[in-house]
Specification:
With 178 residues, this protein is mainly α. The protein has 10 helices and no strands.
């Protein structure tokens, strides 16, 4: 907006005036303070866009879910590997940095964390509904090595894939008994 633009221009004028004035022992601190103020306003204006574009932002969140679901259900996964932030951003027609900032402001998670959540969701689904080995599941989810899936799974769930499968089978078995 014009008000925001004037704020930024005023800060630049203050910096220039201080620079052009007689330099004294306070000049550097005053210029640094103005630059700090400029950066704070820039961050405020940048973050404000996420608040003022709520409807559009929620559409992007919904589209993100669709893009990830489609990718994880496609044949591309095994051949192209795990979806990258760049792939998702391109599919949504936004920059990777914008997407991560938007998601962080809406959900508290960045783009990579959303991709990992979807991966774990798919891994849990395959572990609980198939008899595929962890290596086979890892390959189907786009990992070159089963250890990569196991490490990510353990970090996100505090269980190894096999421990999850066993706990799920135990839970399912107990549920069937009642």
């Amino acid at each position: 907006s014009e008000k925001e633009e004037n704020t930024i221009i005023d800060i630049f004028k203050n910096i220039k005036n201080e620079y052009d004035a007689n330099i004294d022992k306070f000049s550097q601190n005053i210029i640094v303070a103005q630059v700090d103020l400029l950066l704070n306003y820039a961050e405020r204006f940048y973050q404000r866009q996420f608040i003022t574009r709520k409807k559009n932002n929620h559409q992007i969140l919904s589209q993100l879910e669709t893009v990830l679901t489609d990718y994880f259900n496609s044949d591309e996964l095994a051949s192209n590997g795990v979806a990258t932030v760049q792939y998702v951003a391109d599919a949504l027609n936004v920059s990777p940095n914008y997407l991560s900032s938007l998601l962080k402001s809406l959900t508290g998670q960045n783009s990579q964390q959303h991709i990992h959540e979807k991966l774990i969701e798919k891994a849990k689904e395959k572990l609980s509904t198939t008899s595929l080995s962890v290596s086979e599941i890892a390959y189907e989810l786009g990992f070159e090595h089963a250890q990569s899936l196991s490490k990510l799974f353990k970090r996100k769930t505090d269980l190894s894939p096999l421990e999850f499968r066993q706990s799920f089978n135990w839970w399912y078995f107990r549920r069937c008994l009642t």
